[in-house]
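Continuing the batch. This is chain 6 of the set; chains 1 through 5 are on the previous pages. Same settings as before, nothing changed between runs. Recording input and output for traceability.
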Amino acid sequence: MKKFLSLVLALVMTMSLVTVSAGAKDFTDDSEITYKEAVDVISALGVVDGYSDGDFRPDDVLTRGAAAKIICNLILGPTTASALAASTAPFKDVPVTNTFAGYITYCSQQGIISGYADGTFRPTGTLSGNAFMKMLLGALGYDSSIEGYTGANWQVSVIKQASGIGLDDGNDEFVGSQAVTRQEAALYAFNMLQATMVEYDKKDTIVVGDITINTTSTRKDVENNTNTDGNIDGERNGDGLMQFGEKYFKDLEKEDATDIFGHPSSKWVYDGDDVGTYANEADATYVVEDDDMDVGQVVTSSSYMNYSSSEAKDAKYFLNGDDNEVKSSELVAVGDIVEAYENDNGDVETVVVSRYTVAKIDKVDTDVSTAESRNGASEVLTLTDLDGDNSNDYYDKYDDAEKTLRGYASSYDEGTVLAVAFRDGKFGDEVLASYEAEAVTGEVTAFREDETVTMDGTKYEFARNENGTAGFVDGTTSNFDFDKEYTIYLTADGYVIGVEGAAGADLSDVYYVAGVYGEESRYNNEQLTWYAQAVSLEDGSVSDIKLDKDNAGALEGFKDKGNKGDYAEVRGLYTFDDDVAEVWGKNTDNGLVADNYRIYGFNPGATSVNDRLHTALSSDGLAMDDSRFSTTGAVEKTFYVDENTQYLGVDATKATADDIDTVYSVGGMKGSNAGNVIVIVDEDESRDALYVILVNADASVGSADILYAAGSSTDKVGTDKYVREFWSMDDNTSEDITIDEKLSANGFYEVDSIDEDGVYTLKDYDKTASSIDEDSDGIAVEDLALENTDQIYRNALSGSIDGVKFDDVSIANATIIDGRSRADRNDSVYDREINSISRLEAALDAVRDEDLKDQGTVEIDLYVKDGEITFICVTDVGGVAKDDGEQGSSELDLTGVENFACNNNIVTVDLVGTGKIPANYPVTVTLMKANSTEGDAEVGSKEHVNETAYEVNDWNNLGQIAIQESGNYYVIITIENEDGRVVDEFTSNTVRFVYTAQP
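Output for chain 6:
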């Protein structure tokens, strides 16, 4: 009896059904793959493979040509399929030289695929889910003409059949009109391996006298009487039917197994090699919410899984490990994931409890030994608890799986906080699974000791059982300071497993004093007025604070005794009560402490000024994106930094009364080991740096942060605050950044400063050059016009291009993005997203095509670092196609709507524009209700399709969507082609409609 629990989060299933891959291929973007089992199996078979750079690129869109290749690989096997060739062009846009010509020819001859009415196949076009499912059904033996996969409503027949045999299993958000991604294609192909093939009884025509009788073909399942029966279907003795995998991949086997958690699982083996073991979907899942339960109660309580005692009496229970069998009386904790598996009789056979605790990556070491490298390792990662008291080393990959940090992703870096399932729940033991914990930072507004904490109005539950939070939460769970900010770390289901102290420091009254000096009075040359040259820790501003003439407090001893007013170095932290200074910090048994902060690197009691700052950065220095740094000298320690850490750089190497340079930022700064460093931490969290002061240490933020403004939209989020997407030239990653002015164009910028709210001030970056070679560094070139593929030679730019000379400058490792808007791409002679060298070359071929009305260029912006081009943004693809007179989407121009009205609570609209909407192009009307406070909401949508092409202005009375309340409404009109690509779109103005109550 399968139980359904509405309270189970979908994400829980994703995180708890852990994959353990032994022989599966390792892709560099594994963490981005949702359908891991499918991708592992399909890539092991060679049906869908990765790229030469190690990526799988799971969310790249599948083309029609690539889909044909997948079908051939499935039916013929990759080796045989690769030898396919076309003697004549199968379609007028698929010459025999086309990469996919052989695959397309084969599939066409087998009746698996077909082209368009105009004689084209459009191999580079995207493929809708409906179309790909139709291909898969054809490969399984389904006859398009018999099954109704042709005509106006073919999509309905295809999806009904595909869903009925489980081809879309695993994708609960399947939308047939949307383009298929690579990992979705792998999922559907994987499901096809397990689907039963079909065939048809022979159709006969019998003539009796003057009467002709046509017998109807009957579809039936293909029988399997070979030794492959049972390889795929999971039945011990086989089911007597031929699954696709049993026919075409005879060396592929699916076996029952148990994974490292104890989940009943499926183990895939291909040609004698293990592909991987994958947990089966549980029959019931529950995330524990009560702190006084044992696992047996979760299974049998009517409020939870609701199995009867007799159904659960023979169940075996496991907690974080297939070797850690526990009793039904084992206490579970809030946040634990409990999964129950039934046998064929509906009785509970296995119950698995998964528990995650917090761990921090303290160090990532890429200097592995020869032996470690031979075993597959490229990184050693040290995990610690939040305080650093316990630690253990793991590898990113290793032949001995017990030493591997399972769940490893390329984003795992020093300082990353993880949710980790340790074997037996013990820190430092084998890692069964891991993922990045969600971090929430804010002020605590309420808490219930050892139960809940409320931050900025949101209440969070601590992981715990009836004995408290010990062993479940790392960090304080009581006695929170309401004046401080904290960071809590959450599991995927939102339960607190870690707490760290204040995330930022309030040091508005504290100053770094570089020195003191005196100035003569205007009226008495022998009378000096003394000033402290002070840098505010609040924002890095420099001020001259006037000192008491007779007693300047802690700074009195620095006044020039010769009464000449000469500048004297101080080098220390101070507060001021009007004109009297006081050292910030007192020496205690725990070091220098002030206002619940601990200060490292400053010794106010030193007899020599040069000894007051006694600590420096280690030889590695500090980089903008560092998550940790180390110090040497009097303090040898490792500190962690994050986006809330404040930084102050002070250059006082040639300080005078009038000259001192400072730089302030939040979230990052560069520095060297040339000078000194002061680190301020929370008294209770000594490893997390709240404030870092770099003195004479080459501090900067600008040189490491050259940014590229991408995208076309800048959102206003406050007064003089705008958010826009930027790419960092330091590591070629993108993020949304808040800036203090609106930018309307793409381009390169340099960070000028970052304020305490994380708002960036930018300035133009104009370091360019007329000649670029292997010695070039930090060069930006904008609006470079590429004319042909000859300018890209062996993955390098070569020769004189648009006035810039390139000396074989490599683009092999460049990050390539497409900066064009969707509308620009749709109107372009090359409408695919340009994100690789091959697509850049394909775009160049497209703009120089001899059949174009006007040829064009491909314009790019690029950045050069260390003699290589590391970043390219495509800004424009030129060229104008000829008007060939054919009716297609290129003639279509949707310009507006009219007669947008509501009658009897039914909303309708007419289209306005020029040209025709081609036959079978779906037109979708989406009715939206505007809401300024809660955000706009979709009321409903309706798709309209005509079998004949009609003028845009003839599309009337569309929508017919009902409203339920009065309000302001607008419509979004979307027109797609048969492949699901949007070819035009329009959003109307808002109109107020009044709901009329019905009698």
